[in-house]
Each structure stands twice: as structure tokens, then as C-alpha cells.
Amino acid sequence: xYVHGVVGRMAGPVGVTMLxxxxxxxxxxxxxxxxxxxxxxxLKGLGLLTVSGITGFICCDLLLYGAxxxxxxxxxxxxxxxxxxxxxxxxxxxxxxxxxLQAVAGIIITLVGVAIVLTERTGSTLLPGQEVPTGxxxxxxxxxxxxxxxxxxxxxxxLKQAMIDGPTPLxxxxxxxxxxxxLLWGGGLFRGFSGSAVRSFRQNPGMF
Length: 208
What we know:
Elements: H1 2-35, H2 43-71, H3 73-80, H4 83-94, H5 101-118, H6 135-163, H7 169-191, H8 194-203
Helix pairs in contact: 1-2, 1-7, 1-8, 2-3, 2-6, 2-7, 3-5, 3-6, 4-5, 4-6
């Protein structure tokens, strides 16, 4: 979490999200080739994985790195960890799944841990030079962290539905990441914000 927070401050939420995706995609693609993953995917599965990729690898990551820059990596990661509980709740409401008791306990424990970290005023949970968030910044950072958890949960729900059609987990992960990378970099090239990400990498190649 600390390393991600430092890199996020160097490149910004958009920059670090854009720069890490091609490396992840290449590594995952090599693994798929080495393992000879079956590449079958229905049109419905592609649509579901597209939504899963957008919500998981774009929306979630952008909000998570944004939260790290405001409330610190530890608090941001703890907020994002609420995604498992949110996923269980969404599964109960939209997929008819049962909500296990351990999921409820996990949500409560995580909320308590988040509350402790967010009320910490010594700065021990922050990055070097990062100010203790208060007032509007604290609310904004907390909202970003919670938003990351919700988007990650939505991503998992769509992934579950896509897996019903039979794609292997590795192939599904590759497709999700490929879609997210193409959309984010395509938008960056079209809107012009990809240049700042590339400049950040050139100025700080050691970040990766």
C-alpha cells in the first residue's frame, strides 16, 4: 500500500493507473500463452467482462489512488477492503445469494478498523510530507475510498455473471484488463491526458 501511495503521488491517479495497466496486461498475456488458456468467449460474456473491466480497473483504481493521495494508503486500502462485504450484499440483492454470518462480521470489523485509522491524528498512517486530512478533505478522501470499494464490488458481480458462460479465470482477467487498457489509453490519446502519464514515467522511471 505504501509503495502504491508513493507512486500515486508521483504520477497522479490517472497516470499511475494508465502506466501500470500495460505491464499487467503483458504479464497476464504471457501467463495465458504459457498455460495455453482456452480463449472461448460469448458476446454476452464479452459485454459483462467489459463492464467488469471498466468498473474494476478504471473506476476503482482511479478512486483508490485518489483516496491514497488524500487520506493515506493505509486508510484507502482499508476502505477498499470493504468490497468483499459490499459484494456479498450486492450478491444477496441481485443474485439471490445468501449473506453468510462471517461476511457480516467482516464488514463490522473492517468498519471499526477504518474508523480507527481515519481518526488517527499522528500522521503515522500517511505518506511522508502528507498532511493529516480534516474537514472537506477527509470527507472527500473517505468518499473516494468507499467509491473504490463499491466499483470493485460491482466489477466482481459482473465477473461472476460472465463466468457462467465458461471463460477460464485467467482468460476472463485478461479480457477485463485488455478492455480497460484500450479504453483508458484510447481516452487518454483522444483527450490528451496520456502525455502527462508518459512524462511522469520518463521523469521517474524507477517508479516501476
